[in-house]
Specification:
Dye-L-proDH alpha; 7-stranded mixed sheet; oxidoreductase activity; Ubiquitin-like (UB roll); 2 iron, 2 sulfur cluster binding; FAD/NAD(P)-binding domain; 23% helix; 2Fe-2S-bd_N; alpha/beta; 2Fe-2S_ferredoxin-like_sf; 10 helices
């Protein structure tokens, strides 16, 4: 079901020309500018594929191209990520059933024929960190290539309808969706930034002193990007928790539900249970209510709410119960979620027998955290380290966000899970530092790096940032007295 009314967003401006795609031979109405998964969800189709071994139903989970739950066959070609592939008139989409093969006679393009693009700085990732890196590297005098595998710039910002905290210069009081628009317009204003959308980086290699990024555009075209320096701002992936039937269609990462509702105007379901009472879970609850979805409850394993009080108070005023010391035991349903069973936890984190509660829901949202996407950094030879405070494995780096591989910088959630504000500040530091390293910027830009570093420390000085500072100390090299 598509949303036609929303208190904040106007989807009529976002939807392009009406087109028809075919799923399993049946016509499905879609709009140019939306992805296959969004069109299928709007038509009530949740099962997109079946697992290879046990042939269990699979559906959308992350909606940002970083898992394999939504793979489909498109015009006979398997393993297409339906969440980031745009619809086209007459497109034939089929459910993927286990392991698939390429169509007979299909021949993949050869790397030797791939066109090559060059710049001083290549930025992978068009979210808040990548956008700020590209903008500031360009302003410092560098030529910049910005690539992102999604059909639009903005990353997580394009689905955030709440207003940001912080300083005015860091977009305090501005909604995330608006920040995405502002930064996207700033990129367009700069003639020394070339943008490649629907382009997935699949490898980072070294060619002399330069960095070579191998990429695939629109699932079929091979490209090469050569930069004197590289900024990796690939964001994060949704975490999963173990419970019975956690693979049923109708179980989504919180970000996927925000993508459905706030980016494409598609209602994810009618009745939702949220697992996780951090800021993401709390914000998601009132975003769902804005979209006309009933939130049955928020379940939190910890003894207290993890997010800001202001968010929790708003959710409670809207009548949503927050059940701390509870966890989900199982999802129930045949081909999709029909019910969720939860239970109370004791002091040893074990379910208490007899405390089970059943919720009749068609959607389960997992707001249980993110982990940094470091695959490209790891493959490029950057030293990585597990840091609990930063939510997973992250790249070791210095105060200018340069990793242990000279010329490769990191920023945003791929450097550790934090706020979008810190991602933008890290992107600014990494972008300027990459331009300096490439020899495209004058030393005067060092003052801008130092200012951004001070702003980062100030933003992290609050109670929610202290554990992050402890984590950052564990991965910083070449920096004394960081506190």
């Amino acid at each position: 079901m598509r949303l036609t009314e929303h208190p904040i967003l106007d989807f009529s401006e976002r939807r392009g020309r009406k087109v028809t795609i075919h799923f399993e031979g049946q016509p499905v109405e879609a709009y140019e500018g939306e992805t296959i998964a969004m069109a299928l969800h709007a038509a009530g189709i949740r099962v997109l594929s079946h697992s290879a071994e046990k042939h269990r139903p699979r559906g959308l989970f992350c909606a940002i191209g970083k898992c394999s739950s939504c793979l489909v066959k498109v015009n006979g070609v398997p393993n297409v990520r339906s969440c980031i592939t745009l619809v086209e008139e007459g497109m034939k989409v089929e459910m993927q059933r286990g392991k698939e093969t390429l169509p007979k006679g299909a021949k993949p393009p050869a790397w030797k024929d791939a066109p090559r693009y060059k710049a001083d700085v290549v930025v992978i990732g068009g979210g808040p960190a990548g956008l700020m890196a590209a903008i500031h590297a360009a302003d410092a005098g560098a030529s910049v290539i910005l690539i992102d595998e999604n059909p639009m710039l903005g990353g997580q910002l394009v689905k955030q309808t709440h207003k940001f905290f912080g300083k005015r210069e860091q977009f305090a009081g501005v909604r995330g969706v608006k920040i995405a628009e502002i930064l996207g317009e700033e990129v367009k204003k700069r003639g020394n930034i070339e943008v490649f959308l629907e382009t997935s980086a699949v490898g980072v290699f070294h060619e002399g002193e330069e960095k070579l990024v191998a990429a695939v555009r629109k699932n079929k075209e091979l490209l090469e990007f050569l930069g004197k320096t590289l900024v990796v701002a690939t964001g994060a992936m949704e975490k999963m928790i173990p419970f019975e039937n956690n693979d049923l269609p109708g179980i989504y990462g919180a970000g996927a539900i925000q993508t459905l509702m706030n980016t494409y105007g598609v209602k994810p379901g009618d009745r939702v249970l949220i697992v996780g009472a951090g800021n993401v879970g709390l914000i998601l609850a009132y975003q769902l209510i804005q979209a006309g979805v009933e939130v049955k409850a928020i379940v939190e394993a910890m003894p207290k709410v993890g997010g800001y009080f202001v968010h929790a108070a708003k959710v409670r005023r809207l009548g949503v119960p927050i059940l701390t010391r509870h966890t989900i035991l199982r999802a129930e349903g045949k081909d999709r979620v029909e019910r969720a069973v939860i239970a109370q936890l004791d002091e040893n984190w074990r379910p208490v027998p007899g405390t089970e509660k059943v919720f009749e829901v068609d959607t389960i949202a997992l707001a249980v955290g993110l982990r940094p996407s470091i695959e490209l950094l790891h493959q490029a030879g950057c030293q990585v380290k597990f840091v609990r405070e930063l939510s997973g494995h992250v790249a070791v780096r210095d105060g200018r966000m340069e990793t242990t591989v000279q010329g490769i910088f990191v920023a945003g959630d791929s450097a550790g899970i934090e706020e979008a504000t810190t991602a933008m500040l890290e992107g600014k530091i990494a972008g300027i530092a990459a331009a300096l390293k490439a020899g495209a910027a004058s030393p005067e830009w060092l003052a801008e790096i130092e200012k951004a570093q001070r702003d980062l420390l100030e933003f992290r000085s609050g109670p929610f940032g202290r554990h992050v500072l402890e984590g950052i100390k564990k991965v910083l090299v070449g920096v004394d007295g960081y506190a």
